[in-house]
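Course assignment 3, question 2. Fill in each field.
Student: A.L.
Task: Predict the tertiary structure for the chain below.
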Amino acid sequence: MLTPGNYFVGGKFKGLAGAGSFVRVKFWSMADCSGTTISDATLDLNNITADWKQYWQGFSAPTGTVSATVGVYGIQLSIDQMSLGTAAEF
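Answer field:
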């Protein structure tokens, strides 16, 4: 369950720069991540490097949010310690 408010998504990533990698959080109107998609937020990883680095993106879950899904999309992307929470920390 995710209530409306301010959050961060991020973690440690490494990969191929310019590959179009990103993390997307979608906000849903029902508790089982169904119903209507209210909106989404994206952490762009297009400037990623071959070395482990932390990347964070702040966003606001809009009014009506009850749940959220997190999708990671990338080519040659490695992830460590990914987090979704109210602070940019693991």
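Instructor remarks: DSSP finds no helices and six strands in the chain. Residues 15 and 42 are 17 Å apart (CA to CA).
Grade: pending
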